[in-house]
Amino acid sequence: MADNLRALFSSNDPSAFDVAEAFTDRHSQWVLVAAALEEHLHRIAGRSFDVEDLEAPRRNLIVFHGVGGVGKSTLLRKIEAALTAAEHRPAQWGAPTWTDRVLPIRIDLSRAASAGSDLERVILTIRLALAEALGRPMPSFDVALRHYWEHVHPGEPLDEYVRRTGLAGKFANMLPGQLTAGVGEMAAALALPGLVGSAAGQLTSALVSALRERQERAQALAGATRTAALLEATPDLEALSYYPHLLAWDLNQLPAKKRLTPVVLLDTFEDTADRHRDFERLLQRLVWLMPNVFFVIGGRSRLPWADPALHGQLDWTGPTAWPGLATSSSLTVPQPRTAGSGARQYLIGDLSPEDCETHLARRLVQHDQPLIGADIRAAITARSHGLPLHLDLAVSRFLEIRRTGRTPTAADFDCSFPALLARTLSDLTPEERHLLRSVSLLDAFDLDLATRTAGLTQQAPARRLTERPLVTEDPYALWPYHLHRAIRTAVRDDDHSDDRWTPADWHQAATRALAALGDQWTNAAATGPSRLLLVACLRQGLRLARDHHLTDLGWLTDAAHAYTEDSVWEPLALPTDTGTEPVPDTPADALAELLTAIARRQHEHRQRTADRLTAVLDTGLLPAELAEVGLYYRAKAYKDLSQNRAARAGMQQVADAGGRYAPRARRGLANLARLAGDFPTALAAAPTLGWKGRHHRVLGDIHWSHADTAQAVAAFEAGRSEAEQHGAVGERAMTQVRLALALSFADPGRAGDELALAHRFLNGLDQRSNTLLAQVVALIKDAGTDSVPRRAQGLHADIEAAGLPFLHRFVELALAFHHAVRGEDQDLAATISRLRELTATGGFAYFTDIAHFMAALPLPGPSTTRWTKSEDDVRSAWRGLVHARQEHLRTGN
Predict the structure, then answer these.
(1) For strand 18-19 and strand 364-366, is the pairing parallel, antiparallel, or unpaired?
(2) Cβ of 48: how many Cβ atoms within 10 Å?
(3) CA separation (Å) from 632 to 402, 625, 772?
(4) 458 — alpha (psi -120 to 50), left (phi > 0) or beta?
(5) Residue 350 CA to chain centroid, in angstroms?
(6) What is the distance in angstroms between the CA of the first residue and the CA of the last residue of the chain?
């Protein structure tokens, strides 16, 4: 309503646009409330229900908690309206299944003055609502209330107090009259009509005596077991907190036609919290002593009553007393049966983008059309991260801009709101505010990371902060905690708070965060490699170093080497404000671009990879040991592009430098020698490469090219075992694909099994070239069957899109084998012609020789290939594989 009035007074023309309360659908929360309330009604209607049972566990409540501004108060107001009248219930919520009469009573606890006065306000509000709904006294409670009032507020009539505080508006006059009627009923029951106008103490004494004497009429009106004891107690605040037990008993005595169930909605429950939990203890007592009343509680924090650690601070604690409060659930995708299954505590999630759009479109309307344009709605939705408070603040900003005479644009809403941050910070301690700013630097964190980033020595403050609703927990994540994104943005953009940080403060915190991330990765690496932790630390560390211009890369250099070691290639692209690729201007920028370009080559044309790596190398921002990483992968990209001369120059430069990538570069040179058909040079280099140079894989590639299946398989198996020993899953997958390749010519049955294992190894890795090579292996395995040419065409298209032209040669080699097996001379001649064109430059010219050997065709001229054995032996071996496949197809064995 306040937002509506603000909008109304934002223009000289009240008819300029329509302002509507745009309640965004919270259907899932309504489902939970409806299910829990239905269960409650069924339970209290049962014969076994005893309103005086003070030991049974309590399930008469449901709790919604969430960050400030997420829409808890709006939800409670809407639930109140929906329970009041069907016409106020959103159509999508659906009608309730119960027929019992319910009475919603919403109480805003944010108006608290003190524990005493506020408990009075809560109890009087409930009694006033019952007075209006029932029109009859609650005898035992009313006598106790009158006794309390005359003792604690002598000389102040209750009706005057009710009118002065505005507790129940127009119904204020009904309660005093009902109290008088209640006293009259009690006096009549005691056959003491003269007590009606006397002091409450006299009536109380008479009633206690009658109850002690078990007078039948007195017990019929005030016969709760503990009534006499309550009335004998000193009528102070402590006694008042137990009087709801009498009100619950009175409600339970109502005749069937008058029976109703109050639904008390306690809003802003976080305002009851203090160091000693005084008011919270009184409110918990209210809930416990009225088991026939249903409570809906909304607050920023989860209700901790099921925590045994609160024993002594509250009257009833632990999961046995409050079984539904033991866990807190997310409402992201709730199931309708959840409430009925016993859960009673729920975290209210953010609105979906669709709900945000609906809210903004309906909030301001002009001529039946949304006043806020679609582009502005999209900008607000993206910036809000689903937080309703942000949406409302954005609507206010929209109206403010219009009032200046300017038309708002989407760019006007690329901002955060000080009011949002002020609400977030309002109930945090100074230590928690410091922690909040510290962890806003992190995408996700644990207690240790938060503590070290804040520069603290104890984790207790971080633990307290994680219990706040502005921190979301995912217990299955590497780092379980993260800030609500809208709040994180507001904290980072803070220019208004009195204790806001200076740039130096942010820089120091970022330095601490980077060091803490590095220590986590380094300590974990000492006990065993964790790829998940490595990538997570790199993502956060690179962003911190980039955003805060941290020039000392430190552990990031070693982490970058570890990242490239195993060829898994998880994405590392860092978010940017513009959505475009940034131009590196710091070492961290350059390192992020280097690793991103290397990883993205699995999804981009290799020419794009070469260009990106050239650009980052040209900045000169990378230290020498990282520059060689760029040189090496650019040379690999050149090789894949069949630019072998440039590839050889790059590999030689890295090998000559003698750094960490020298073994890889020497392997690259050996492979380039093989691609040029210089097998003896490649073979001579293999023993010098070792594990880092992947010597077994180099040997396997040489042997399968000679149709020496046995030696190739042995080399690849040795390479796979070595990769497993080193925990190198990327190398294991690459070696397994090549093992299947060697077998695909000679043993299609076993090749199928090895290929299936290769696909399993590739699953979850980002190795595009090896995934496509595995498809080539499948073609060779199936050579001689009808589907091969058609599949080859589709594979050529995929290879072209990937920018991996060297694989075209493998597809043509597979087709040459297929046509040789089927004796399709004309098709084979066409394939050899294509192979000759493909291998005229860039290597693999020996594939053309192999195609001739397969079909027992003479070479058209002298070959440039240098085999490790005689050409006749190689020719015979390849021709033998063709004969073997023909026999296999003929016999099926």
Answers:
(1) antiparallel
(2) 7
(3) 57, 11, 22
(4) beta
(5) 11
(6) 82
pLDDT for residue 760 is more than 80: yes
Strand partners, 330: 347
The residue that leads in pLDDT, 495 or 547, is 547
Cα R_g (the chain), whole angstroms: 39
Looking at the chain, the whole-number percentage of residues with pLDDT higher than 70 is 84
Q: What is the pLDDT of residue 171?
A: 47
Rounded to whole angstroms, how far apart are CA atoms 766 and 286?
Answer: 59
415 or 124, greater pLDDT: 124
Burial class (CB in 10 A: 0-12, 13-18, 19+), 871: middle
H helix or E strand, kind and range, residue 486: helix 485-492
Q: Provide the whole-model pTM.
A: 0.61
Length of the chain: 893
Whether 339 shows a pLDDT value over 70: the answer reads no
What is each CA distance from 626 to 582, 611, 629, 630, in whole angstroms?
19, 17, 5, 7
Which helix (H) or strand (E) segment is 891 a member of?
helix 871-891
774: helix, coil or strand?
helix
Residue 443 DSSP symbol: S
- DSSP codes of every residue in 87-120: GGS-GGG---S--S-EEEEEEEGGG---HHHHHH
pLDDT over 70 (residue 24) = no
Task: Sheet containing 261-267: give its strands across.
Answer: 102-108, 261-267, 294-299, 61-65, 345-347, 329-330
Q: In Å, what is the CA distance from 257 to each residue of 100, 136, 139, 773?
A: 11, 13, 18, 80
Could you tell me the two tokens for 48?
């076994």
Distance from C-alpha of 777 to C-alpha of 662, rounded to nearest angstrom = 31
**Structural domain boundaries in the chain:** 2-24+351-415, 27-347, 430-484+492-666, 694-891
* HEC string for 127-192: HHHHHHHHCCCCHHHHHHHHHHHHHHCCCCCHHHHHHHHCCCHHHCCHHHHHHHHHHHHHHHHCCC
Give the integer Cα–Cα distance in Å for 371 and 7: 12
Which candidate, 295, 235, 378, 362, places its Cα nearest to that of 64? Answer: 295
In the structure encoding, which two tokens stand for residue 441, read together? 């630097």
Give dist(CA 696, CA 686) in Å, integer: 8
Taking CA atoms, 266 is separated from 40, 246, 297, in Å, by 17, 20, 5
Alpha carbons 73 and 332: distance in angstroms, whole number: 19
201 has pLDDT over 80: no
Q: Are 620 and 606 in contact (CB under 8 A)?
A: no
pLDDT digits (tens, 9 = 90+) for 128-139: 889 888 888 888
Tokens encoding 214:
């078990």
Tokens of residue 423, six digits? 């609400």
Q: Which are the contacts of 206, defined by CB distance < 8 A and separation ≥ 6?
A: 190, 192, 195
Please name which of 409, 815, 802 lies closest in space to residue 601, comparing C-alpha atoms: 802
Please give the residue that has the higher pLDDT: either 383 or 43.
43
Separation CA 107–CA 268 (nearest Å): 9
- Residue 816 vs residues 665, 674, 782, 825, 875: alpha-carbon distances, Å: 32, 20, 13, 10, 14
Residue type at position 861: G
The two structure tokens encoding residue 816: 């040459």
Q: What is the mean pLDDT of the chain?
A: 83
- Plot region of 727 (φ>0 → left; ψ -120 to 50 → alpha; else → beta): left
Q: Kindly indicate the confidence band of residue 166, based on its pLDDT and cuts at 50, 70 and 90.
A: low
